[in-house]
Amino acid sequence: MKKIFILPFGALIFLCGLVLQFSYETSGGAAWSMLIASLSSSPWELAKPYMLVFIMWSFIELSCLRPRLLHFICARIISLFILLMTSCTALLCLGELRVEAPCMLSVIFICILAAETAEYLMYRSSIRTELFFVPLIISFAVVFFCILFCSFYPPPFAFFRAGSNIMNTFPLLFA
Predict the structure, then answer these.
(1) Do residues 50 and 13 touch, judged by C-beta distance below 8 A?
(2) I need a labelling partner for 86 at 20 to 30 A (CA). Which of 42, 55, 65, 112 fits?
(3) What is the span of the domain harbouring residue 158?
């Protein structure tokens, strides 16, 4: 049944993330909005609101669908990692190409749909993802901490700096 709703739910996640992305400017720089909004144009900051909405949507879906708990949580965490990796990598590459914002937003939407589809396929499959429950929970806690902490104290990597591109991040590949 969820397969039918991947596109509308992906659009809902995208639109809520888009609203959160600009909440820092619209709130007048309020402290609470620093946790959920994009503070700079780095790939990490641009993907952060969408990841937070993806996490919030997981809790709503968990309470409404009442799925097999461990299997659902594992599939959802893996799909969150897919969203994180694909969106940040795509934004890093598009930053190199100096692509305009509408194209970047469409790429984020495609990454959300890919993560939702991956979660659906993992949940429906017979793969026993619940065997990886503890490592996935630990890695999710680390990523969630990074989502919140790296906004205020970004590491000195190009991935977390505004105006980053793939040539800044991997200079040895393009020497």
Answers:
(1) yes
(2) 65
(3) 2-169
Confidence check: pLDDT of 132 > 80: yes
- As a whole number of angstroms, the distance between CA 118 and CA 48 comes to 19
CB neighbourhood size of 43 (10 A): 27
Q: Is residue 174 part of a domain?
A: no
Cα separation, 55 vs 161, whole angstroms: 24
How confident is the model over 34-71, as pLDDT tens digits? 778 877 777 777 888 888 888 888 888 888 776 678 88
DSSP 14-50: HHHHHHHHTHHHHTTS-TTHHHHS--SSSHHHHHHHH
Q: How far apart are CA 91 and CA 107, in angstroms?
A: 8
Residue 171 pLDDT level (bands cut at 50, 70, 90):
very low
Amino acid letter, residue 139: S
